[in-house]
Amino acid sequence: MSETTTAPAAYESTTQTPPPILARRDRLTRSQGWRRRGPLLPALIFMVVVTQVPFVFTLYYSTQSWNLVRPGSRHFIGLQNYADVFRDSQFRQVALNTVIMIAGTVIISVVLGLLLALLLDRAFFGRGIVRTMLITPFLVTPVAAALIWKTTMLDPVFGLVNFVLKPFGVGQIDWVSKYPLPAVMADLVWQWTPFMMLLILAGLQSMPRDIVEAARVDGANSLQVFGELTLPHLRRFIELGAVLGAIYLVNTFDAVYMMTSGGPGIASSNLPFYIYQRAFLGFDIGQAAAMGVITVIATTIVATLALRLLFKSFTGKEEAA
User: Which residues of 166-200 are buried (b: 16+ CB within 10 A; e: fewer)?
Assistant: First the structure.
């Protein structure tokens, strides 16, 4: 009995890895991990220095009462700047303008991008040339695009829009002054429609053709195929385009500055431009920093929720839940 009980113990002791070997293996694993991460450290340090350090300074400035035109006025006031921002009716109006600008631009761009993608998904003569021409607006710099729309398209005397609408009884309308926010949105839609078109076109070309052919064999017409097959397949691509477009459009500054300068009043001002006005025209560094922090936090929360929903949609977890 003693031999049978001691044999397994002796066998286990011989098969177990000695602690020095385990420690050496852990050191090798850590060193391999650092060798893989090492080339990324300069990029990580650069990103922290460029993004996080300025944000920390912005947090600090947001707790200060600091106006550049009043030397010696800088002092600590805690969260008073944030309270003043939330009581500012102009800030609330500008935030509403930003939401309208982003939502309107994204919705119109997605609809137009879907229509253009459906057009380009068909074979016709000169499709490559048409595709290149439709992509071109997305390649134009935002400043140049804003100047084109302000001086060439929407000018009250020489603008192409008034020229086209003149046979319908439309006079010399100053679109930028009379409709400032829609004028800015027209420029943004013109720029972002090609981006939505490319995403949706990629989704269309990834759709299995045999499913569409089977539906047509079963008697489905074009409208039924689009509503039952094409649109559900494109839902993820449309959501991706809407999320990415909204994230980038939050930072819109060029179009507002070049076309309307936020006016008349604050009718076409958005959050980046209003913060710029407070910081560099009103010289109120404390309140401008508080507005910037609020905008960053709100944008991060919305973007995080949207990206999570999008991730669930692409990975299929949404259906599983």
Answer: eeeeeeeeebbeebbbbbbbbbbbbbbbbbbbbbb
